[in-house]
Amino acid sequence: MQKLQSQCVHHITLVGADRQTSIDFWEGVLGMPFIFEQPNLDKASESHLYFDPGDGRLITVFTDESRTPVKRRTPTDIGCVHHIAFSVSRVTFLQAVARLDERGIKHSGVKDRGFMD
Prior knowledge:
Elements: E1 11-15, H1 19-29, E2 34-40, E3 43-51, E4 58-63, H2 90-102
Parallel strand pairs: 1-4
Antiparallel strand pairs: 2-3, 3-4
């Protein structure tokens, strides 16, 4: 079978709760500028928010004002996203951990997988 050559990952889209909660997390906690909003072209009742992680690619989030945030572990069913890893300095990483802690957002803790500076 011939390989299909991708040029890069253009964006990753996640399902979020409401608009403000998503902006508060991605821009407020992680510092990724909120750059654009449009309707979800597949579901008009949802918004499609775009955030800039800083590398020319995008993180996008589908939001719906009828959804509320849930404080539970993300499902690990087949097809679910396990995690997204961003390349950041150790200082930036520790700042992100502090922001999560300040806001009472649960996380797995600091786990050095051997690829941070």
